[in-house]
Amino acid sequence: MLQTRVDSGLDGVIVADTVMSEVDGEEGRLVVRGHSIEDLVGVTGFEGVAALLWEGYGEGGGNEAAARDGMAAARVRAFALVPKLLIAAEGLTPVEGLRVGLGMLPDSDPVPHHYLVCGALPVFLAALLNARKGLSAIAPDPSLTTAQDLLRMIRGQRAGEVFEKGLDTYLATVADHGFNASTFTARVVASTHAGLISAVLAGLCALKGPLHGGAPGPVLDMLDEIGEASRAEAWFDDAFAKNTTLMGFGHRIYKVRDPRADVLKAAVARLPETAGRLSYASEVEQGAIAALRRHKPGRRLDTNVEYYTALLLEALEIPREAFTALFAVGRVAGWCAHVFEQERGGRIIRPQSNYVGARPS
Ligand code: ACO
């Protein structure tokens, strides 16, 4: 017999305890293992956040240097798979290519699997992007951080500190975020004891959708279409008339502005020559919020992380088609942490459905 009936989308349902992160949707706060996201990314980067998330669980947990070395060695190891990947992923989008790449990692690999996936994703992504330009893959440099090395492998040379820091801030900011769709997916797979690689691959598949990690590319398309701030109001009214979802706005949990939007907006402002684009985007953002208030009164829809992600990744000269794949390079640290937590204490996740179909007569 069913004990609890929940709305579609599991809205408001608490399915587990976690020490990883807390999303306060009323106050607009994100806490990652005891630290506010604003404070955390002010003092550490991607490897530091990964080490924090893994503390008490996998190797490298609580030790930034170990996490950094483990991921760097795994990048070198993953590079050996690149020729095979490029054949298998020909003609695919970058995120589809990552799906193939993760699928190629064997469960039998002796490298700790959280290192393996964290090292493989940036190497695979850079190789896939270079292949799209007809260029050869560039080997990783294990002396660098993930952000430094990823930009170097994409550009063919070091990008410079300000750009590397910008990407590092992005990866650290998106590393974990409560029970979002991809993290929950990863935990469901982990709950069957399928292993970390399978759980992370499942997480990537959930992230790929435009309602989750696929929004920033369309945000830029929208900014391009609007063209100038004075056209925003008419553009948004037309969009609502056509029932268009505004990408980069709305969130299941946040009923106010997503705190990561401001962290990433500040990161864009630190990059050279972004003032004009930022001021245009800020005006369009205000127009979008006003339009949401007009057309969806009482719905409490505001800016989410993807709006300024789009601006930041554009300023870092990352091609639009790679945005979702790049999100995975950061979020993978959180997926691994949740897999550890699920494997340690969780039971198999197996809810019930209410059968409303035909019955035998
Ligand atoms: N633009 C226009 N209307 C919106 C938007 C939006 N961005 N978001 C929600 N609404 C409306 C819905 O149409 C709905 O209106 P209705 O009740 O009149 O039908 C109401 O607000 C409630 O929306 P739901 O879709 O039920 O909210 P839900 O919590 O299921 O969806 C989601 C959240 C998927 C993020 C949604 O807001 C959305 O599609 N946003 C745009 C895509 C996006 O930016 N995704 C990235 C999210 S952040 C992340 O995953 C990393």
Element layout with pairings:
Blueprint: E1 21-24, E2 29-32, E3 35-36, H1 37-43, H2 46-53, H3 64-79, H4 82-88, H5 94-103, H6 113-132, H7 146-155, H8 161-173, H9 181-191, H10 196-207, H11 216-226, H12 232-241, H13 259-269, H14 275-295, H15 305-315, H16 323-345
Antiparallel strand pairs: 1-2, 2-3
The structure holds acetyl coenzyme *A (ACO).
Residues 9, 180, 211-213, 215, 245-252, 296, 299, 301, 304-306 line the site of acetyl coenzyme *A (ACO).
Which short descriptors sum up this protein?
361 residues, mainly alpha, Cytochrome p450-Terp, domain 2, 3-stranded antiparallel sheet, 56% helix
Explain this structure to me?
- The protein has 2 domains: 21-211 and 320-345, Citrate Synthase, domain 1; 216-315, Cytochrome p450-Terp, domain 2 (Orthogonal Bundle).
- The radius of gyration is 20 Å and the shape is globular.
- It has a 3-stranded antiparallel β-sheet.
- The longest helix is centred in the last third of the chain and has 23 residues, at 323-345.
- The chain has helices at residues 37-43, 46-53, 64-79, 82-88, 94-103, 113-132, 146-155, 161-173, 181-191, 196-207, 216-226, 232-241, 259-269, 275-295, 305-315, 323-345; strands at residues 21-24, 29-32, 35-36.
- The chain has 361 residues and is mainly alpha-helical.
- It is 56% helix and 3% strand.
- Helix 6 (113-132) runs parallel beside helix 7.
- The protein starts with 20 loop residues before the first strand and ends in a 16-residue tail after the last helix.
- It is built from 16 helices and 3 strands.
- The protein binds acetyl coenzyme *A.
- Residues 9, 180, 211-213, 215, 245-252, 296, 299, 301, 304-306 line the site of acetyl coenzyme *A (ACO).
